[in-house]
């Protein structure tokens, strides 16, 4: 079992310094890794993993390795953008609950902090417009003698709200229409109105829900890590350490080829957009298939390796087939795989790529692991879009997406094992 080293930290208003005590670390070729949310040092037999309470600016992160240990110098994230995001998210939640005056106040505060934010300005105008319209008089609806007119009144109210809020409450309102209309046809107007109110009641908060749906996904994913990978949240048994792996160039070429099949399908699905929400995930800057094609060609030429022939039951085509099916039948489950694939590659995937490059490619960095611009900004944009899409999902749809996380881990693990396992022996 790895040994957790001691560490100390100190902070100012702007900076955070973390020192990990590992005597003699310079003699064991340590792996040092940092993102905006975590710090990690792997120096056998020591393993250090620290989840940061708040994000830091990873563009200004520095690390110093001495014979006594590792020191991380971090610069804290700016408080004002975090405050703007918090206000905007809270305002969005208040809109979903129907509290338009409170939402208006939060949007105005956010706009004062960030006057150039066009998205917040647009949302504020929408809410103000919605607040000025009288959609339905429920008291009058209860007095209607004709149940058909009452049903039309309920449906008209829902349609007006849906148009004004651009689908943010579409699922709730469709439920209201069905219940309200059915009861109104039976002239049970009081019960219809109670159903309207009951469906607006807040549900029990899920872990991470207050920060957005992507944070819920993170909580679920962390529980699928091992204790070594995530000491606080990991629940899975430890796997064989990387040092026991014996990667080969043939296996690595196969991994790249199998992965290319998966990324090609991901990009085709969002480009064809059989569901409208997929359009939001085009041209994210995270696309990998073209870069993988370059790497596959380079490895074949550089090391005189034969092209990999993919089998129908291999990990790449099997995963691509699953993604194609989910994209048509279950968009929530598909987007779970979409996000987890891209996020995992930018985090652990790049660490593994660096390790393999040192063992097989004389340290050459493949195109698969390179990005134009800041990866963090690209991921943040995808997170925001996914949070926006998930606002229109029911709780059942969100849970179905979360339930797909373990399957995405399993299929991604199958791809990774091709680096060291011969074809036909992945199971």
UniProtKB/TrEMBL annotation:
<dbReference type="InterPro" id="IPR011990">
    <property type="entry name" value="TPR-like_helical_dom_sf"/>
</dbReference>
<feature type="repeat" description="TPR">
    <location>
        <begin position="84"/>
        <end position="117"/>
    </location>
</feature>
<keyword id="KW-0809">Transit peptide</keyword>
<dbReference type="GO" id="GO:0009507">
    <property type="term" value="C:chloroplast"/>
</dbReference>
<dbReference type="GO" id="GO:0046872">
    <property type="term" value="F:metal ion binding"/>
</dbReference>
<dbReference type="GO" id="GO:0004392">
    <property type="term" value="F:heme oxygenase (decyclizing) activity"/>
</dbReference>
<dbReference type="InterPro" id="IPR002051">
    <property type="entry name" value="Haem_Oase"/>
</dbReference>
<keyword id="KW-0349">Heme</keyword>
<keyword id="KW-0408">Iron</keyword>
<keyword id="KW-0479">Metal-binding</keyword>
<dbReference type="InterPro" id="IPR007052">
    <property type="entry name" value="CS_dom"/>
</dbReference>
<dbReference type="Pfam" id="PF01126">
    <property type="entry name" value="Heme_oxygenase"/>
</dbReference>
<keyword id="KW-0602">Photosynthesis</keyword>
<keyword id="KW-0802">TPR repeat</keyword>
<feature type="domain" description="CS">
    <location>
        <begin position="2"/>
        <end position="87"/>
    </location>
</feature>
<dbReference type="InterPro" id="IPR016053">
    <property type="entry name" value="Haem_Oase-like"/>
</dbReference>
<dbReference type="Pfam" id="PF04969">
    <property type="entry name" value="CS"/>
</dbReference>
<dbReference type="GO" id="GO:0015979">
    <property type="term" value="P:photosynthesis"/>
</dbReference>
<protein>
    <recommendedName>
        <fullName>heme oxygenase (biliverdin-producing)</fullName>
        <ecNumber>1.14.14.18</ecNumber>
    </recommendedName>
</protein>
<dbReference type="InterPro" id="IPR016084">
    <property type="entry name" value="Haem_Oase-like_multi-hlx"/>
</dbReference>
<dbReference type="InterPro" id="IPR016951">
    <property type="entry name" value="Haem_Oase_decyc_pln"/>
</dbReference>
<dbReference type="InterPro" id="IPR019734">
    <property type="entry name" value="TPR_rpt"/>
</dbReference>
<keyword id="KW-0934">Plastid</keyword>
<comment type="similarity">
    <text>Belongs to the heme oxygenase family.</text>
</comment>
<dbReference type="InterPro" id="IPR008978">
    <property type="entry name" value="HSP20-like_chaperone"/>
</dbReference>
<dbReference type="GO" id="GO:0006788">
    <property type="term" value="P:heme oxidation"/>
</dbReference>
<keyword id="KW-0560">Oxidoreductase</keyword>
<keyword id="KW-0150">Chloroplast</keyword>
